Amino acid sequence: MGRVSNKVAIVTGAGTGQGEAEARLLAAEGASVIATDINLDAVSRVVNDINAQRPGAALALKHDVSSGEDWASVVAQGVEKFGPITILVNNAGILAPASYDKVTYAHWQRTMDVNAWSQFVGMQTVIPHMKEAGVGSIVNIASLAVVNACGRFTAYTASKGAVDAVSRAAAIELAPFNIRVNSVDPGVIHTAMVDEAFPDKASIDAAAAAQPLRRMGRPIDVAYLVLYLASDEAWFTTGTSQVIDGGLSVSGGVTPVMER
Ligand SMILES: NC(=O)c1ccc[n+]([C@@H]2O[C@H](COP(=O)([O-])OP(=O)(O)OC[C@H]3O[C@@H](n4cnc5c(N)ncnc54)[C@H](O)[C@@H]3O)[C@@H](O)[C@H]2O)c1
Fold first, then answer.
1. How far is CA 170 from CA 41, 139, 154, 238, in A?
2. CA dist 217 to 19, 188, 212, Å?
3. From the alpha carbon of 19, which atom of ligand 1 is closest?
4. Cα(102) to centroid of ligand 1, in Å?
5. Do the domain assignments include residue 52?
6. CB of 119 shorter than 6 A to ligand 1
7. Residue 242 forms beta bridges with which residues?
8. Which residues have C-beta within 8 Å of that of residue 253, sequence separation ≥ 6?
9. What sign results for the dihedral spanned by CA atoms 11, 73, 49, 116?
10. From the CA of 219, how far away is ligand 1's center (Å)?
């Protein structure tokens, strides 16, 4: 018996990085997984691997999370194949760094659409099925940028702040239906997104060395937290923002030299 057996999960952005790790882990723990991504080739590879381990456990779908029409189609296909959805992991996101003077309305709007509107419309589309099932867990991936500011991430930070705030509001509205909503604030997790922010080995190594644990997080580290929040083990946990950052947010950055 897995930790999420008999549950049906949607994981967005599951073609690579954290979403891939989350889809693989939820499937390994017994869930049926609808793995979606704008990159169908990437998510199909992940789903083929999952199905080689557990035949029929996963479905790959092409999905632009900023599109309400895509959400309607993904949810309809997922429900038809597996039944009512009981876990939603809103993971897909873009970084699109830009200094404040380069932020245009189009840049701001695209970042908000892919990172924030996507998660809201995803919840709106899935919630009727969770109500039908009488249970649900929604995990919205935000970012440590909500807590610790980063230069060049203006629109990204705004979008992730919206994710955290909307998750709290949704948690209260949905609690009477036994639907839990939590957000996750990852620190620096080594994925393609981090390679975009730190484009060479020297800057990657420097960023890892600056962490209190002297390393970056791995996608599987976040996946274990998502698994917990998705499972019934977290039945009393809703409306929280879970920081997972190797201690970065509580670090003062300075360690005095002490002598006794
Ligand atoms: N990596 C980090 O350090 C870090 C830190 C904090 C938060 N996050 C957040 O974690 C989540 C996962 O990031 P990651 O590091 O795995 O990134 P990643 O770039 O490795 O993966 C993102 C995935 O999302 C998909 N995607 C992009 N736009 C999409 C769209 N419009 N519709 C559907 N899919 C789309 C991509 O194809 C890709 O497979 C994101 O929401 C990101 O903002 C990442």
1. 33, 11, 24, 10
2. 14, 6, 11
3. 16
4. 22
5. yes
6. no
7. 184
8. none
9. negative
10. 11
Q: What is the pLDDT of residues 115-126, one digit of tens each?
A: 999 999 999 999
Q: Is residue 258 part of a domain?
A: no
CA atoms of 260 and 248, how far apart (whole Å)? 28
What's the 258 CA to ligand 1 centre distance in angstroms?
41
**Structural domain boundaries enclosing 144:** 8-188+218-243
Ligand 1 touching residue 246 (CB < 6 A):
no
> Which tokens is 91 given?
């993971």
| Mutation pick for ligand 1 pocket among 88, 189, 222, 225 (CB with most ligand atoms within 8 Å) | 189
Identify whether 195 is part of a domain.
Answer: no
Instruction: Output DSSP code: residue 145.
Output: G
The CATH number given to whatever domain includes residue 99 is 3.40.50.720
* Size of the chain, expressed as the number of residues it contains: 260
Edge-to-edge strand list for the sheet holding 241-244: 58-62, 32-37, 8-12, 87-90, 136-141, 179-186, 241-244
* Locus of tokens 């876990």: 87
Task: Dump pLDDT digits (tens) for 144-177.
Answer: 999 998 889 999 999 999 999 999 999 999 999 9
Domain-located, residue 253 = no
Confidence band of 260 (pLDDT split at 50, 70, 90): low
Q: Which of 100, 105, 156, 228 is catalytic?
A: 156
pLDDT digits 0-9 by tens, 21-53: 999 999 999 999 999 999 999 999 999 999 999
Q: How many domains, in total, are found in the chain?
A: 1
